[in-house]
């Protein structure tokens, strides 16, 4: 069985948002069309406390996109985004969520970021997504959403490592940096992740 995992399609990642992904809104019609083809649809949602240590604002003198060492992990500092219970953390208004069987929130521990839908970046905490998928009999996942070069890539890499056949849906994701995502292509494929347009996918 195949599941569609829609990663972090939230207001703050759309044009005009606090951490806007270029053309992030362009994937929403694709996602809405795709969902009917899948027996299982799950969403992830970035959900940060206001004092999250990935926010540049919580490091005096630091600016967004600087990289620091955070408890032994290289951390990009971001603008404040997806702060829990704020409008920017809400799922995109245009995203059809009626078919979503579950929403998995991530990034709630202020001490560590959480790009992947399965683990935080330090792999200290699980979200429960893998266990939920296995309980449903899912063996393959197709990953879409935002942003391709961060949360989508990390989610896909972890899915593959956890034993799921894994595909990134190329036309249903957008990167923060096109060059950054291009550099990830070969390493992801080396792990076993496929990158395919939705027209070439046949969910089972």
Structure commentary:
The protein has helices spanning 28-34, 129-136, 148-161, 178-191, and strands at residues 2-7, 40-46, 67-70, 73-76, 102-106, 140-146, 165-174, 194-196. With 204 residues, the chain is an alpha/beta fold. The protein has one domain (2-49, 81-200): Isochorismatase-like (Rossmann fold, 3-Layer(aba) Sandwich). It has a six-stranded parallel sheet with strand order 5-2-1-6-7-8. Strands 3-4 form a two-stranded antiparallel ribbon. α3 links the parallel β6 and β7.
The total beta strand count reads: 8
Sheet with most strands: strand arrangement: 5-2-1-6-7-8
Overall residue-averaged pLDDT value: 95
Q: In one word, what is the shape?
A: globular
In CATH, the architecture is 3-Layer(aba) Sandwich
The SSE order reads EHEEEEHEHEHE
Low-confidence stretches: none
Gap between N and C termini: 5 Å
Q: Percent range for helical residues?
A: 10-25%
Number of helices: 4
CATH topology: Rossmann fold
CATH superfamily: Isochorismatase-like
> What does the largest sheet look like?
6 strands, parallel
How much beta, percentage-wise? 15-25%
Tell me the domain tally: 1
Helix/strand-derived category reads alpha/beta
What is the level 1 CATH name? Alpha Beta
Task: Specify Rg, calculated over alpha carbons.
Answer: 16 Å
Quick structural overview:
With 204 residues, the chain is an alpha/beta fold. The chain has helices at 28-34, 129-136, 148-161, 178-191, and strands at 2-7, 40-46, 67-70, 73-76, 102-106, 140-146, 165-174, 194-196. The chain has a single domain, classed as Isochorismatase-like (Rossmann fold, 3-Layer(aba) Sandwich).
